[in-house]
Amino acid sequence: MKEGNSMYKSIGILIFFILLSGCGRVGSKDNSVTTFGKKASGDLEFITVKKSHFVSTNTQNSGYYQTIIKTIHKPDIYASDDQLEIASNYSLIENNKHKEESKISILKSNNEVNSEILLLLDLSGSIISEGCSTPGSTCRQLINSTMQFIDNIVGDANSNFQMAIYYFNAKKEIMPLSKQTEFPTGNATLLKNSIKQLNNPQFIQQYLQGYENSTNLYGAVKQSGEKICDWIDCQNKSSFEMGSVVVFTDGRDLADIISKKDMLKSLKDNIQYYTIGIGDADNKTLIEISTKAHHFEASQDNIQSAFTDAYNNILYNSSFYQINYCPSTQEGSVRIKIFFDDKTNHIRAYTKEDKISLNNLDLRCDLPLHPAR
Predict the structure, then answer these.
(1) Tens digits of per-residue pLDDT, 80-125?
(2) Regarding beta strands 175-176 and 241-249, do their DSSP bridges make them parallel or antiparallel, or are they unpaired?
(3) Widest CA span in the chain
(4) Nearest residue to 232 via CA among 223, 224, 222, 241
(5) Per mean pLDDT, which range of 73-77, 175-179, 181-185 is the poorest?
(6) Per-residue pLDDT, 20
(7) CB neighbours (10 Å) of residue 6?
(8) Domain match, 218 and 275 both
(9) Are 151 and 52 members of one domain?
(10) pLDDT tier at 75 (50, 70, 90 boundaries)?
(11) Which of 39, 232, 256, 257 has its C-alpha lying 20 to 30 A from 155's C-alpha?
(12) 183 vs 6, 179, 249, CA distance in Å?
């Protein structure tokens, strides 16, 4: 009987190790899939803003097809080396088949983007208490930094960026810093003149004093998204419009007009939120508003640097891409998907399927020449 028990015990131990070994293999496989899923991208998503259309060139029977996309959840690792600009990362899927013979070229295209930016400034008591004309004060640093930010945003004559400037404090509603900045404008002089009002004691006394004892941060963030959606079509992901909110604050919500939960629920998927926190700012909440990659903590001495970082991120995230291609299929109706595969960083994305009709011509493929990468 003891021998029988010993035998059963040995068999049980053997089965246990076999199962353990098998579970380990399955777990390893699943983990690898999960890891790839997480890396696959920061959930990179392609939104087609202009469907495939034929672009003819000067030579007879020559040209190419073009699709224009914008990206959602663009990986931050691409900020220094944008893999979305490298044609070799793309391939064409024609009628559900990969076709290596097809040709593709890529061009980053900012000029098609209409980008509306709302600069939202905390002008509660802690900001204005030292005086905006006092050298070295937070308000003085804020004035200098926003002046440079304006030059960056609208200084380029070819830029499609426009900006409005609003402020918040204890008031229930966010307020435009001036009538001229109530709606987005590309006029740098109007934007700068509104900022210069902070040097005027009469402006401070008339509009800011008496409202400095509280901070309606949550309400301000919610309303800023609603403002942007008055200017762009927030429901249409396929539009040539982008919206950004840049929040500057040194505090936390004290007004309790709306809850943090309601504020976070109000954030719009197709608006980029950037936050700059200094001093006693509630950086934890600011990170939740902006996602960690778009939050910038600053000291009183480097506010300008934080605004520059915000500008660089706005510029990076506002890029559209022209995907120019010639299919290898030569006639009939072709269902096209464009497939992006960055094997180094394990990031993939597809466009939605698009149909093109070929006219049975001997079409010469003349892709536009772009800088090789």
Answers:
(1) 889 999 999 999 999 999 988 999 999 887 666 678 999 999 998 8
(2) unpaired
(3) 101
(4) 241
(5) 73-77
(6) 41
(7) 10
(8) yes
(9) no
(10) confident
(11) 232
(12) 84, 8, 21
Contact yes or no for 329/358 (Cβ under 8 A): yes
pLDDT over 50 (residue 63): yes
124 & 102 share domain: no
Phi and psi at 64, nearest 5°, equal -165, 170
Claim to verify: residue 124 and residue 200 sit in the same structural domain: yes
The answer to whether position 190 is within a domain reads yes
Calculate the alpha carbon distances from 284 to 97, 223, 290, 297, 300 in Å: 47, 20, 10, 11, 19
Domain count of the chain? Answer: 2
Do residues 91 and 234 both lie within one domain?
Answer: no
Q: Quick check: is 97 in a domain?
A: yes
pLDDT tens column, 205-242: 999 988 878 899 999 999 999 999 999 988 887 777 88
333: left (phi over 0), alpha (psi -120 to 50) or beta: beta
Residues 311 and 324 in one domain: no
Give dist(CA 263, CA 179) in Å, integer: 26
Establish if 5 belongs to a structural domain.
no
Element (H, E) at 350: strand 347-350
Instruction: Please name which of 176, 235, 240, 233 lies closest in space to residue 207, comparing C-alpha atoms.
Output: 176
Residue carrying structure tokens 């010639």: 326
**DSSP H helices in the chain:** 2-39, 125-128, 138-154, 188-196, 201-203, 217-231, 260-265, 283-290, 303-317
Sheet holding 271-278, edge to edge: 175-176, 161-168, 114-122, 241-249, 271-278, 295-298
Instruction: Provide mean pLDDT across the span 314-342.
Output: 90
Same domain flag for 286 and 149: yes
Host domain of residue 164: 114-317
Confirm whether 15 is domain-assigned. Answer: no
Among 278, 297, 317, give the residue marking a domain's end: 317
Length of the chain: 373
Positive or negative, the CA dihedral 247, 248, 252, 257 is negative
Burial 248-275 (b: 16+ CB within 10 A, else e): bbbbbbebebbebeebeebbbebbbbbb
